[in-house]
Description:
By secondary structure, the chain is an alpha/beta fold. The protein folds into three domains: 2-22 and 235-365, 3-Layer(aba) Sandwich (Rossmann fold); 27-230, Nitrogenase molybdenum iron protein domain (Rossmann fold, 3-Layer(aba) Sandwich); 404-432, no CATH class. It has 18 helices and 14 strands. It has helices at residues 11-19, 27-43, 45-56, 69-78, 81-99, 138-151, 170-178, 189-198, 215-224, 249-260, 275-289, 295-305, 314-324, 336-339, 357-362, 398-414, 418-425, 429-432, and strands at residues 2-5, 106-108, 114-122, 125-129, 155-160, 184-186, 208-210, 229-230, 238-243, 267-272, 306-310, 328-332, 348-351, 388-396. The strands form three sheets. Strands 1-11-10-9-12-13 form a six-stranded parallel β-sheet, with helices on both faces. Strand 9 (238-243), helix 10 (249-260) and strand 10 (267-272) form a beta-alpha-beta unit. Helix 2 packs across helix 3 (45-56) and helix 16 runs antiparallel to helix 17 (418-425). The longest helix has 19 residues, at 81-99. Catalyzes the sequential NAD-dependent oxidations of L-histidinol to L-histidinaldehyde and then to L-histidine. One of its GO terms (cellular component) is cytosol. Substrate binds at residues 237, 259, 262, 328, 361, 415, 420. Zn(2+) binds at residues 259, 262, 361, 420.
Amino acid sequence: MEVLDFKDIDQQTLLAKLEGRNTLDFREYNEVVQEILDEVNKKGDQALLSYTEKFDGVKLTSGDLLVKPEEFERAYEKVSEDFIKALRVAIENIRAYHSRQRQNSWFISEQQGIFLGQKITSIARVGIYVPGGTAAYPSSVLMNAIPALVAGVKRIAMVTPPLKDGSVNPNVLVAAKELGIEEIYKVGGAQAIGALAFGTDSIPKVNKIVGPGNIYVATAKRLVYGYVDIDMIAGPSEILVIADESANPRYVAADLLSQAEHDTLSSAICITTSRFLAEQIKTELIRQTKELERKEIVEASLKQFGQIIVVETLEEATTLANEIAPEHLELCVAQPFELVQAIENAGSIFLGHFAPESLGDYIAGPNHVLPTSGTAKFYSPLSVDDFIKKSSLLYYDRSALEKVKNEVMILAQVEGLTAHKNAVKVRFEEDEE
């Protein structure tokens, strides 16, 4: 990992390099994924079972797709009490945080005879994709499902690929059961997305699909968008740490590594006002990496997309951070609450020396489904808002409409929409007779 002076870096080159991490070309996968989706749309369960046998090596029947009550019982037998206790702490915190995001319908009547408002309605049916096998993350079950539950979604269906023995990852099952979600289907990949989008005999159609997955899942989500809504297509994970002289190099290095271990395309960047601290962090990165199980992934990530940048002021640091618009932004500085005002673009902001990124991933409460690859400039974390719809409301009595009828008809006439004009005119024709 290089240590560079801010004055020596080309910001545009750095940003282009970071954007280039998202090297997956969905066009390469469109044809094969579209074929899978078409098969599911036409053949339903038959296609699901065929693809599950082909891709997962598991032969199921339609009756096997839905997880049965006894499978939840067996899952609880396979996980530790400590895991369940940790889950329950996380659930409580995540639910409490997202409960503050609820919106209420509202109505106003500032003029006689006129009522305006907005009606909030939860999405009726949501599908959550959960990766299976070694890539199964129960924390993602919580982060995707809890905001939907808080929003009032009436039905939540989960899909996840089965293990080789036809079961489902027990950690995932327990996480779902703790939330009261029992509609879980043993199907993964693009075929699972197709089932949620189009519906089959066993899996009813949903209105929105959320959750992470591999390139085939991501491509399928892109292709079914329009039939259903989706959350986002997240790219490789990333962290940016702004550190001043008060930062502990061991902490900063550990936090950078927590994201570098995700993927060889992950980005870990530190911007600091101290050259001495920068060198200490570099030394710590080398030392701590040697002790990690995913050392090869970490080393590749840091070599390609890791940097330590030395700036003269925190103002320079925040300016660069806003351009990068990181998924995770840590402010490891003496006065983080003063610096946060300067941050405009970040998925999640961690304040101070004792708020590591992993705290947000699991237990604190804010959602860990975050915008990546610079999209924090216009996207937000997954939230209750993603699971509601807004309908505008308006009521005019005859007197109120009469006051604005001429303006409405003039605007309609200018646009050449005479039927629009007539819809107002007919309501007052009796006055002209």
